[in-house]
Structures are given as structure tokens and as C-alpha cells.
Amino acid sequence: MRQTLAILIDSYRDLSHRKLFWISIVLSLLVVLIFAALGINEKGIVILWFEVPMVVNTTIVSESLFYKVLFANFGVGVWLALGAVGLAVVSTASIMPDFLASGTVELSLARPIARWRLFLTRYFAGLLFVVLQVTVFCVASMLVIGIRGKEWLPGILLAIPIVTLAFSFLYSLSVLVGTITRSTIAAVMAAAGLWFVGGMLATADVVLLRAGIGNQIQYERAQKDVETRRVQLDAETKRAGSGEAGAKNEQELKELKERLERSERDAEGEKRDLNNIDRWHRMILTARLVLPKTGETLALVEQAMISTAEMEGLFQSNNRDDGLEARGRRARFGAREQEIDNRTRRAMADRSLAWIIGTSLMFEFFCVALATWIFSRRDY
Amino acid sequence: MVCFDPPSARRGSTGPIGVVMATPLPESWFTKARTGNARGPAALSCGSMDAPESIITSPAHEGPTSATGEASVLAPAIDVRNVEKMYRGKTHALRGVSLRVNRGEIFGLLGPNGAGKSTLVKILMSVVSPTRCEGTVLGMPVGHKPTFARVGYLPEHHRFPEYLSGAQVLDYFAALSNVPRALRRERCDELLKLVGMQDWANVRVKRYSKGMRQRIGLAQALMNDPDLIILDEPTDGVDPVGRLEIRKVLLKQKELGKAVFVNSHLLSELELVCDRVAIMVKGRVTSQGTLDELTREGRKHEITYSMPEELGTTTDEQRAEVRARVVSLLLEHLGDALHPAPRAKADQTYQLATLNGVDLAIAYNAMSVHTLDARAVQPIIDALRKGGVVIRSVRESRRSLEDLFMEAVTDPTTGETMSVGAGGGDGDGGAGGKN
Known about the structure:
The structure holds two protein chains of two kinds.
Chain A lengths: L1 H15 L2 H19 E3 L3 E4 L2 E4 L9 H30 L2 H5 L5 H5 L5 H12 L1 H22 L9 H23 L2 H59 L7 H41 L3 H12 L2 H11 L5 H27 L2 H25 L3
Antiparallel strand pairs in A: 1-2, 2-3
Helix pairs in contact in A: 1-6, 2-3, 2-7, 3-7, 3-8, 3-11, 6-14, 7-8, 8-9, 8-11, 8-14, 9-10, 9-13
Chain B lengths: L12 E2 L5 E2 L5 H9 L34 H5 L3 E10 L3 E11 L4 E5 L6 H8 L7 E6 L2 E2 L9 E4 L11 H11 L4 H14 L15 H13 L5 E5 L7 H16 L3 E5 L3 H7 L2 E6 L2 E7 H6 L3 E7 L9 H19 L3 E3 L10 E5 L2 E5 L3 E4 L4 H13 L3 E8 L3 H8 L27
Parallel strand pairs in B: 5-10, 5-11, 8-9, 9-10
Antiparallel strand pairs in B: 1-2, 3-4, 3-6, 6-7, 11-12, 13-17, 13-18, 14-15, 15-16, 16-17
Helix pairs in contact in B: 4-5, 4-6, 5-6, 10-11
């Protein structure tokens, strides 16, 4: 315990002497100040003491939901997910290379502490950067939102473990590469590369999921069309066979048959496209399976803070009272998009915690275990 | 001081009593005369791995005991055998090193760059894993982690985290050695004072000079009140006053019964404090023992003189002629007791001889008599004086650590200093073989 505490204190001293640490804290507090400046009332948004009449007001969104969305989407989704994590990746990349530098590592290795324990303690101590950053941000946000908006949202504190967890996925690769190469630049590149590749794959995943859902809807419609035409053709053929009055003649039946065949070809085409998209999507999902899901993990903050009912209410409120013309346009062009949105959201929400966090933790475990093994066996 | 012409004479040496000696006659001459064969550095080896009697009465036994039991208290501080290290199957850094460091003594490890000294130290501290290693550190197997709580270590080229102050460095590394907080505070103040850094305690290490870093390094190595202190180049970058202080600290630790293992290039430093030394060359310990044991072979009397009449000594021929006159004078006055060597090499500067079993090397203006028995020197002086030779000086001399070291690293066949480090895939050298 004494050794663990010593390493934690030393890690804090290490972090606190880095300029990026304080820059990050200052930026976090600036973001909190923005929260402090924003409010909502029955007329619209309030910036400092100025009212800005807007569609978004307390008749549509409750004050609590407004702050939750503000925190989850802007605070976590933008600042923590991009700014703070980015700064943390850069700032923490040198922790292991510095620790492993010749002349430094010997001083720690020649102590009555097992190498694996020394390394793992150092590893977890490295996460202090993000823990401290996010804690400062969340506590300050909670206080500001509570005082300014009279809404006390302890759920904000959930962001501390979730953001730390999301960062730890990137940090684990940074540590592995830093341990192997003892190079800060290589560690930064690896973590940034993983972040970029992970982000690209996540985007490709969503795009292909949407495309697949869109295609599925098209295919369902085409099948429905085939079914309708087949029923119509069967009925008309029966009527023509029975010599019923008003029955279609030969030519008209032929046209109906051709329409049915065209619909079947369309359905086949949709099916082929769907299979194609599915194949690509499966490949992307397989690649994502072994990589950490930073984005989805961070999105858990929103899921934890805002209930499904609140979220759906928010979407519905966005779609009302915006005029007859808009409703007509949506009826014509937006119904399909709306359907795709809904299904995509449901599909994403259906992804289990085991898939999001479980597989990411396996990636982290692999990286840390390999780095620990290398550290424990290497000659310095 | 009388100047000699032979090249080897240029390497004057300083004995332990601080007398500057013009004693250039190399030991190898006498060795050759006795054995008829060239002897390499290995011939210096004292070879004994047995603990001297002193271990039984070592002050260490009065020192602090440990949780590892009486057996480890009685055991030598370091007792390793057949230590081998092959880096990635290519570089043979250590080739069966065996050495023993007793408690209550200061042990010096010498060797040229890349000899494997730091690799050996790192193996002892489990920083490097050995390919093969038998033996113990403080009575426990090498690499036994809990034992490191009783070992203080200062690595070569150490780099303390620059964001820490001197006091924080001591506190952090002592905490890693499991020293309780109250004790850390107490020892931190004491040790900062001991190494003269109390005024810099709260200044960040990045502002320290190299010498100050060494002082803090020494203090951190003592924070856990270790039974064994391993210092790799402790006086590197330290000014003379600092070196003196460090020597005092080491001697104090010795008095307290601690074992001190010093790895250094500074032979004069080691000579001043070490009880025993080992010389390592190309991954092997070529000699090991007390300074007295190692320098015993080279003890001798040096006589310098000049001929009564002015004789030319400019050319080799002239010098050979003068030397021959000295030898004939000795033969004339000492008679059959003197046995000159049958034949000297053409380029040889010395005439070798024996007098009543004592080796002599006779030059045109100086003579080495390989004995410390002053009585054996008297007949020679008498003979020279009878022949009218003017005696200019008679002094005792012994080999210095530097002489020992240079002999160890000199190739006996070529007379050239061995190259640094491993020298190829099958060579040695810790530095070259690191991952």
C-alpha cells in the first residue's frame, strides 16, 4: 500500500508539472463558464442576462432536460470526447517512455516491488490525468447547473468513470507502444491512430447501418409491391378465366405480368444491394469487434443521463408546431428518413454493454497484459 | 627525480603512501625471467573465493539484523558464482564471473569501458536477467525482491524525475523501498545534511548540477539504511571536495558494518577506500583480492645512480655500454652470487639478473631489486659504491592499482591495451549488448 501510494503521489506530481494538465483544467473551467452563461425559460434561451426568443424553450424542453442535453452533447460529446481526451492522449503519451528511460527505470526496478505490480500501478496512475480533469469538469458543471438552473444533476458524475474508461482504451495502446519503442512520438501516433481508425470505423458502421436499414425498407416495399401485383394478377387471371364481365383482356394481363416481373426484379435488386451492404457491414463490425468503441462508450453518458422517453419526447417536440407546409414536406419526403432514423437509433440502443464495453475491455486487457509481460521480461 | 629513457618509464606511478615513484620497470620482465613465458593478466589472479577470517569477526555481525533470519546475517553481502550474460544470443557480456563481497568492507570493481561491470551490477539488482547465475545477495537468491529493501543502489548515469525536489526524490524512492513515513522524514533530514544538500532540499532536481545529483543519489541509496550499498560510478562529476565527502560517507558505512560495492573508473578513488578489489576485463574477473594481496608481487626497491665519469647516454649503444659496465662492476664485487641472464634481446633496455634468488633489472642509470628486504639491497649498494658509482636515491615502491589495472587490460603478447567493450558478436560489453 505504501508503495502504491508513493507511485500515485509521484504520478500526480508528474502530471501537475505538465503545462498541458493546467491548460486542460483551464479549458474545462471555460466550458463550465459557458454552462453558467446559458439558461432556458418559457420564451427561449437565456445567455447571461439576455433573452434570445427561440423555438427551444421550457414549453418544449424542461430545464432539467436542457441541461442534461447540454452537458451530455456539448460537455461530454464535444469538450471531453474531443478536447480533453485529445489533450490527455498527448500529455500522457510520455509517461511510460519517461519511466522506462535509461537511468530512471533502474531506480524503480531495484526496489522490493514486483515488476508487474510496479508497471500496473504506474499504468493506473497514468489515468489520474483524465480522472482529475473529468472530476473537476463534472463537479464544476454540477455546481454551476445546480446554482444557475436550480437543477441538481448528480448523474453528471457518472461521466467520470465512463470518460476515464473510454480514455483508458486509447491509453492502453499508447502504453503498449510506449513500452515497446520507448518513444513518446510513437505512443502519441499509436493512440491518435487508434482514435482515428476507431472513429472512421464507427462512422462507416453507422453509415452502413443506415444504408442497410434504408435498403431494408426499400426491399420490404418492393416485396410488398410484388405481393400486391401478384395478388392482382392472380385475381385478374381468375376473372379472365371465368369470363367475368369487365375482366382484363390478354394484352392487359400481359402488362400486369410484366409489371409483376419488373417488381420482382426490383425486389431482387434491392435484395442484392441489401446483401452487399450487409456483407460490408459485417466486415466493419468484425473489425470493430476487436477494437475499442470509444464513441459508443462516451455515448453511454447520454444514455445514462437521459431516459429513452425523454429522448423520444425531445424528438417529437422537435417535429411539432412547425407549420402545415413543413408537415406536408415531411409527409412526402421525410417519412422514410424518419423511419430510418428511428430504426437506426433502436439498433444502436440494442447493442449490448458487453459488445460496447466488454470487447473494448478485452482490447485494453490485451494491450496492458502484453505491455506488462514485455516490461517484466526486458533487460534495462 | 631521475628520468629514464625506456618508454615504460614514462608511466610514473603513485604509491599508496603518496610517493611519486620513478619505477618504470615492468613486472613482466621479471616474470619472464622467472618462468621463461609471458604471462597474461590472468596470472595476477588471486583466485581465492574463500572468505577471509575477518568475515567471522566482521562488524556486520554487530550491525542491524534483518527479518530474513540469522543465516542471511551471517552470509556474505554478495556471493555469486558463474554469472553469465548473453544479450540476445549475440553479445557475451559476462563469462562466468564469480566474486564475493563481505560485510563491513568496501569492495571495488574495476574494468575498462564495456567490461561488463554495469551488467553485473544490474544482474545483482535484477535490472538485467542473467543467462546463468548462482549465489546470493544478503543470503537470499539473486533477484529476490524483498531483499532489495535492505539494498541501496545508485545506478550509473541515473536520472531522477526532474519534477521532484531533492527531498521528494529521497522520500519517493524510500517509500518504494517500503520505508515507513516517519522514518523517511527523519532520515531525509539526516542524509541531506550528510551529503551537504540541506539547503537544496526543496529545489527541483532539474536545477541541480551533476555533482549535486550524485550527492542526492548517494543519499537516496542510504535512505533505507541498507546492509549492502551498490554504487555505480558514485563520484562521476563530483568535485574533489565532494569526493572526499563521499569517501568519508562510505568509510562511515563500512564502520557501521555495511558492505559497500563500488563500481568505478577512478582508480585512485578506489585505492583510497577499498579493502578489496576485483578487475574485470571482457566479462571475466581477472584478479580479485585485497590491495595488499594484489600489489604484493610488485613490491621492490628502486636504486638510481650515475657513473663517476661523464659517459654518453644518448644512443642505445652508449646506454648498453654503460649498463654493461654496471653489470661488470657488480660481477667484480659480488662474484658468483650474481647470475646475469644468459642473453638479452637486442632491443632490451635492461639486463636481467638474480642475486641470491632476488630478481634484478639493471638499466644504465637505475636498478630494480625485487624484494622489500632492505638487507638484500645492501650488498648491491656496497658493490656500486666500491665501483665508484654515485648512488642518487634508494626507495621502496609497490605497484599501484593503476599498474594492476593497466596490466590487466594490456595484451601480454602485443603489449597493446585491449579494445573497449565486446568487439564483435562473441565479445563482451554491457553497454554494447543492451536491448
